[in-house]
């Protein structure tokens, strides 16, 4: 798909996770801001691409409502979600980037009426991200990691950040104990990372046939240290990762 036509929706949960996107839109010219359902939607152009940028806030309900507004009110042709996540698979470290090729709600369980994880009546548990969008995001992430290699190596030492692609799982819980992250690993061995919005957006986008993609930087490893690691990462690096990835992604699409 080309993103040169129509509008792109860009979402994050928290302000740091949107990086400098709204500032970049303001620098590029006029930005119109609309408030709907207590959320601000900024309509303008970022790095040459017409887009609507907004903060969903935290959780699946917030994410689904915001994605719906992007689709129905603003008519976006695709949605990209950016932000941080907890690493689940053991080789997914703080500072790594994960692109969610598949998304799934790890806390959805209407069993025994429906299979665990399945969205009742939709008959699906896994939602695929759009391949072309995910590929373009992966290219942006690879360029970001290469360009920032020296700074990232200074910060992360012998384990310079890597890009992973695969399954991201979402649920209305901040996962922050060894017991819980181990339970996730056991239930969903494919899960690379956990967050609280991606699968909800993927479901809404599937239902409305709108392409979507999710990119997450790993802020913590969803264990007992997660709350501290999450806050430190979010404030120190969350914005730099999102800004760096989005800038390269949008500039390549312009
Ligand atoms: N987002 C970032 N870290 C997370 C975690 N550990 N659990 C859920 N969402 C997250």
Automatic annotation (TrEMBL):
<dbReference type="InterPro" id="IPR010049">
    <property type="entry name" value="MTA_SAH_Nsdase"/>
</dbReference>
<feature type="domain" description="Nucleoside phosphorylase">
    <location>
        <begin position="8"/>
        <end position="235"/>
    </location>
</feature>
<dbReference type="GO" id="GO:0008782">
    <property type="term" value="F:adenosylhomocysteine nucleosidase activity"/>
</dbReference>
<dbReference type="GO" id="GO:0008930">
    <property type="term" value="F:methylthioadenosine nucleosidase activity"/>
</dbReference>
<keyword id="KW-0486">Methionine biosynthesis</keyword>
<protein>
    <recommendedName>
        <fullName>adenosylhomocysteine nucleosidase</fullName>
        <ecNumber>3.2.2.9</ecNumber>
    </recommendedName>
</protein>
<keyword id="KW-0028">Amino-acid biosynthesis</keyword>
<dbReference type="Pfam" id="PF01048">
    <property type="entry name" value="PNP_UDP_1"/>
</dbReference>
<dbReference type="GO" id="GO:0019509">
    <property type="term" value="P:L-methionine salvage from methylthioadenosine"/>
</dbReference>
<dbReference type="GO" id="GO:0009164">
    <property type="term" value="P:nucleoside catabolic process"/>
</dbReference>
<dbReference type="GO" id="GO:0019284">
    <property type="term" value="P:L-methionine salvage from S-adenosylmethionine"/>
</dbReference>
<dbReference type="InterPro" id="IPR000845">
    <property type="entry name" value="Nucleoside_phosphorylase_d"/>
</dbReference>
<dbReference type="InterPro" id="IPR035994">
    <property type="entry name" value="Nucleoside_phosphorylase_sf"/>
</dbReference>
<comment type="pathway">
    <text>Amino-acid biosynthesis; L-methionine biosynthesis via salvage pathway; S-methyl-5-thio-alpha-D-ribose 1-phosphate from S-methyl-5'-thioadenosine (hydrolase route): step 1/2.</text>
</comment>
<dbReference type="GO" id="GO:0005829">
    <property type="term" value="C:cytosol"/>
</dbReference>
<keyword id="KW-0378">Hydrolase</keyword>
């Amino acid at each position: 798909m080309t993103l040169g036509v129509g509008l792109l929706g860009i979402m994050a949960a928290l302000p740091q996770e949107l990086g400098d996107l709204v500032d970049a839109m303001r620098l590029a010219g006029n930005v119109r801001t609309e408030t709907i359902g207590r959320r601000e939607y900024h309509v303008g152009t970022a790095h040459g691409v017409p887009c609507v940028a907004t903060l969903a806030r935290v959780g699946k309900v917030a994410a689904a409502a915001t994605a719906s507004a992007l689709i129905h009110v603003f008519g976006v042709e695709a949605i990209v979600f950016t932000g941080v996540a907890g690493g689940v698979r053991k080789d997914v470290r703080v500072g790594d980037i994960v692109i969610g090729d598949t998304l799934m709600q790890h806390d959805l369980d209407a069993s025994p009426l429906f299979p665990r994880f399945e969205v009742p009546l939709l008959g699906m548990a896994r939602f695929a991200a759009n391949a072309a969008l995910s590929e373009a995001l992966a290219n942006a992430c690879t360029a970001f990691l290469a360009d920032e290699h020296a700074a990232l190596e200074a910060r992360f030492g012998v384990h310079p950040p890597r890009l992973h692609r695969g399954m991201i799982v979402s649920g209305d819980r901040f996962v922050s104990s060894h017991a819980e992250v181990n339970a996730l690993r056991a239930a969903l061995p494919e899960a690379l990372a956990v967050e609280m919005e991606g699968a909800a957006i993927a479901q809404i986008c599937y239902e409305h046939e709108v392409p979507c993609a999710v990119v997450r930087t790993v802020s913590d490893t969803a264990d007992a240290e997660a709350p501290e690691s999450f806050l430190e990462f979010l404030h120190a690096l969350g914005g730099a990762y999102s800004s760096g990835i989005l800038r390269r992604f949008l500039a390549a699409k312009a």
